[in-house]
Amino acid sequence: MPAAELDRGEIIARNIGVGCITTVSGFFSGGMIAVLVAKFVGSMRGCQPVEGLPACNWWVYAGIGAVIGALTLPVLALRRLNRRRPDQ
User: What is the average per-residue pLDDT within 12-31?
Assistant: First the structure.
Protein backbone atom coordinates (compact mmCIF):
# COMPACT_ATOMS: atom_id res chain seq x y z
CA MET A 1 0.00 0.00 0.00
CA PRO A 2 1.52 3.38 -0.96
CA ALA A 3 2.30 5.78 1.85
CA ALA A 4 -0.28 8.27 0.54
CA GLU A 5 -3.07 5.78 1.26
CA LEU A 6 -2.01 5.15 4.88
CA ASP A 7 -3.66 7.18 7.59
CA ARG A 8 -1.67 8.81 10.39
CA GLY A 9 -2.26 5.97 12.90
CA GLU A 10 -1.02 3.34 10.46
CA ILE A 11 2.10 5.36 9.70
CA ILE A 12 2.87 5.79 13.41
CA ALA A 13 2.36 2.05 14.06
CA ARG A 14 4.58 1.16 11.10
CA ASN A 15 7.31 3.53 12.30
CA ILE A 16 7.21 2.11 15.83
CA GLY A 17 7.47 -1.44 14.50
CA VAL A 18 10.33 -0.64 12.17
CA GLY A 19 12.09 1.40 14.86
CA CYS A 20 11.90 -1.38 17.45
CA ILE A 21 13.12 -4.10 15.12
CA THR A 22 15.99 -2.02 13.74
CA THR A 23 17.04 -0.87 17.23
CA VAL A 24 17.55 -4.46 18.35
CA SER A 25 19.22 -5.40 15.07
CA GLY A 26 21.46 -2.35 15.18
CA PHE A 27 22.45 -3.05 18.80
CA PHE A 28 23.70 -6.56 18.07
CA SER A 29 25.18 -5.89 14.64
CA GLY A 30 26.98 -2.76 15.85
CA GLY A 31 28.42 -4.70 18.78
CA MET A 32 29.67 -7.53 16.57
CA ILE A 33 31.26 -5.17 14.07
CA ALA A 34 32.94 -3.28 16.90
CA VAL A 35 34.42 -6.52 18.30
CA LEU A 36 35.86 -7.18 14.84
CA VAL A 37 37.40 -3.71 14.97
CA ALA A 38 38.76 -4.57 18.44
CA LYS A 39 40.44 -7.67 16.99
CA PHE A 40 42.14 -5.59 14.30
CA VAL A 41 43.22 -2.91 16.77
CA GLY A 42 44.51 -5.54 19.19
CA SER A 43 46.52 -7.29 16.51
CA MET A 44 48.01 -3.98 15.36
CA ARG A 45 49.05 -3.19 18.94
CA GLY A 46 50.41 -6.71 19.53
CA CYS A 47 47.92 -7.48 22.29
CA GLN A 48 47.34 -11.15 23.15
CA PRO A 49 43.81 -11.70 24.47
CA VAL A 50 43.14 -14.17 27.24
CA GLU A 51 42.28 -17.62 25.89
CA GLY A 52 38.59 -17.81 25.06
CA LEU A 53 38.12 -14.08 24.53
CA PRO A 54 37.91 -12.55 21.07
CA ALA A 55 40.12 -9.50 21.69
CA CYS A 56 41.68 -7.29 24.33
CA ASN A 57 39.19 -4.80 25.79
CA TRP A 58 36.48 -6.22 23.56
CA TRP A 59 33.71 -5.16 25.97
CA VAL A 60 34.56 -1.48 25.50
CA TYR A 61 34.40 -1.77 21.74
CA ALA A 62 31.23 -3.91 21.88
CA GLY A 63 29.46 -1.43 24.16
CA ILE A 64 30.29 1.61 22.07
CA GLY A 65 29.49 -0.19 18.82
CA ALA A 66 26.19 -1.48 20.18
CA VAL A 67 25.07 2.00 21.21
CA ILE A 68 26.10 3.49 17.87
CA GLY A 69 24.34 0.70 15.98
CA ALA A 70 21.18 0.97 18.09
CA LEU A 71 21.00 4.69 17.29
CA THR A 72 22.04 4.84 13.65
CA LEU A 73 20.23 1.87 12.09
CA PRO A 74 16.72 2.99 13.14
CA VAL A 75 17.43 6.58 12.10
CA LEU A 76 18.64 5.49 8.67
CA ALA A 77 15.75 3.04 8.18
CA LEU A 78 13.08 5.51 9.26
CA ARG A 79 14.54 8.33 7.18
CA ARG A 80 14.47 6.07 4.15
CA LEU A 81 10.99 4.77 4.92
CA ASN A 82 9.43 8.19 5.46
CA ARG A 83 11.17 9.95 2.59
CA ARG A 84 8.85 11.80 0.23
CA ARG A 85 8.63 10.35 -3.21
CA PRO A 86 8.86 12.67 -6.23
CA ASP A 87 5.39 11.65 -7.46
CA GLN A 88 3.71 12.81 -4.22
Answer: 96
pTM score, whole prediction: 0.81
Nearest to 29, CA basis, from 67, 75, 78: 67
Task: Give tens-digit pLDDT for 29-59.
Answer: 999 999 999 999 999 999 999 999 999 999 9
What is the SS3 assignment for the chain?
CCHHHCCHHHHHHHHHHHHHHHHHHHHHHHHHHHHHHHHHHHHHHCCCCCCCCCCCCHHHHHHHHHHHHHHHHHHHHHHHHCCCCCCC
Do residues 58 and 49 make contact, with C-beta atoms less than 8 angstroms apart?
A: yes
Q: Is 34 exposed, middle or buried (0-12, 13-18, 19+ CB in 10 A)?
A: buried
